[in-house]
Design brief:
It is a single chain. The chain contains 8 helices and 4 strands. It is of the alpha+beta class. The chain has 2 domains: 69 residues, 3-Layer(aba) Sandwich (Glutaredoxin), CATH 3.40.30; 112 residues, Up-down Bundle (Glutathione S-transferase Yfyf (Class Pi), Chain A, domain 2). The chain has a 4-stranded mixed β-sheet, with helices on one face. Strand 3 and strand 4 form a beta hairpin. It holds the Pfam family GST_C_2.
Length: 204
């Protein structure tokens, strides 16, 4: 398998962490989708990463779809419950973490995209998206409480998704003091950063 992605993308990181935790072999191909010479459209018509290309050449995209598939490839370290309320809980955690990222990415693009002049940027839009980030962080903190993991008693996709979101916020929005506001999220992130899968995939 070949994974096309960016070292800075938190969605790509989520897939890479899952692959590491599942002990799956793959080749990583770095691509900048914002570059004029990007080749991502040949595999994903939406022009986004991550994109997983199978041995036969068929492609799979969207991080949620990819990690769902990857979890079925090996019994090692099952990350998503098979069915029922437990499964719904894990997928809801993933949706919350990805939603925080979606808002953060929109805020950052509005503030930094080279296709706009400074006078064309909308601070009200940026503030609205960052408000979603903060309410999402509060929901994460409340849901985690004093538990060791977001869902159940072992590492799951819930923790991976949350950890990738928190790591990206530290990387792109260091001014958001989520560790001070939500110490339990800081403790979870510190624990995740002891895992080789998170150490090897830090955004850059």
């Amino acid at each position: 398998m070949k994974l096309i992605g960016s070292m800075a993308s938190p969605y790509v990181r989520k897939v890479r962490v899952v692959m590491a935790e599942k002990k799956l072999d793959y080749r990583f191909q770095e691509d900048n989708v914002w570059s004029d010479d990007t080749a991502i459209n040949a595999s994903n018509p939406l022009g986004k990463v991550p994109c997983l290309v199978m041995e036969g050449g068929e492609a799979m995209f969207d991080s949620r779809v990819i990690v769902e598939y990857l979890d079925t490839l090996s019994p090692v370290g099952k990350l998503i419950p098979a069915s029922g309320r437990e499964r719904a809980e894990v997928k809801t955690w993933e949706a919350l973490a990805d939603g925080v990222l979606d808002a953060g990415v929109l805020a950052r693009l509005e503030a930094t995209w080279a296709g706009r002049q400074d006078g064309e940027r909308c601070q009200a839009w940026i503030d609205r998206q960052l408000g979603k980030v903060r309410t999402g962080l509060s929901a994460m903190s409340q849901g985690l409480g004093e538990k060791a993991y977001c869902s159940g008693i072992h590492l799951s996709l819930s923790d991976i998704a949350v950890g990738c979101a928190l790591g990206w916020l530290e990387f792109r929005f260091p001014q958001i003091a989520w560790r001070a506001d939500h110490p339990n999220l800081g403790r979870l992130m510190d624990k995740l950063m002891q895992r080789q899968s998170f150490i090897d995939t830090q955004p850059r």
